[in-house]
Please model this.
Amino acid sequence: MNSRSLSILRFIALALCIEIPLILSYFWMTGDFSVPRFNVWPISEWLINYQAGFIRRGLLGEILLRIYGPSGLIRPLYIAMFFSYVIYTATFILVYLKSGIRNGNVLLVAILIQGGIFHMGMTSDFYTRKENIFLIFFAIQCLLYLQIKSAPISFQKYWLGIYLASLFIVTPSLVLVHEAYIFLSFPISALLLWILALERPQDRYLRLAVGLLFCETLIIFLICSVFHGDIAMSQLIWDSLSLTDRLQLSPAAPYSTFGAIGSLGWGFNQHLSTLYGVVSSGGIFIWIFFAFGNALVLSYIYIAIDPPKINGSPSQYLHWICIGFLVLTPMFLVGSDWGRWIASISNQLILLMFVLRQSDLFFKPDMNPLPIQLSLFKRFISRTFLFWLCVAYGLIFKMPECCADLRTVFAPYMTYFSF
Model:
């Protein structure tokens, strides 16, 4: 098969892997179905508000209540979820296009990775969680970074100002959306700002901005920790929802607090018990499998991007990707939804790999290289075989958000044919 035919087939595969999930997501989220469009626990988490006073995680729920309260919130929430998926898909592809990579195989496996764009739309998982907003914001940061790098010198200060303003305004708002933002996405946002500061030593205020941003985020996080919530507040929040919404979430007991709203009163011991359940249930082995599989996909992307050797030394590229991974690992202590955390880390690392392709650090030697040489893969396994292995992994399996079970780890294609 000649290169032109391969390019056409690759384009068709990319189009199908993007369009089919988008179409399924549209009809599922906007259709007239009697069942909840996604798990009632995350639905209830979106509906936490300030009707019982200031409380963690209440910002978006309060906004929804102010706009749609009397007529119910769940229907508008479904539509908002679909548009959040569209926005993330669009920003993800834009980051890829502006990165200058131009490798269809890289984009295909990045879309097919477990917890990525393909599986989001096919299962209505991951993008219906609050961390999808965090992914959108990080993708926007990547676009602003790339715009700063590519803009004429006379306009760089302008884009730099927009970048910093968005960080200092949006970051505290996202902590109010969910206080776990400080673990789920803030570290890699701060890392990208630090990389920009290293690339622009003449702009000393950028290093100061990293410290100020950390202080601002930490203060808002501590405030949210103080206003943790209790059982009485969760009941008041539940009562503030329309009866229609409460019946959809908890038809058997619509007058008793339920789901994520009810969990606002949980203590530290209950949090630890969820982490213990990851190990005691045996789900840890399933998470190890998906962590290894996603790591394999990330390794393929790294090998395909093929960072250069500089005077015989490896590029700093891998060094900063590993730092990005390390600063995000504390999120596994947030809760037992390890599928969500694996998906979040994987998506953010892919965006970081794309954006660092245009970084000055990509072309600088690493004087203290890590003892990790992913290029050794090429000695034992061909890049083509590794590509098809990543594609098979993406199409055969389906990583659950939480509560791992062997019966739920395969893609449910038969479900679509039964509609």
Notes: The chain has a mean pLDDT of 91. The first helix runs from residue 3 to 30.
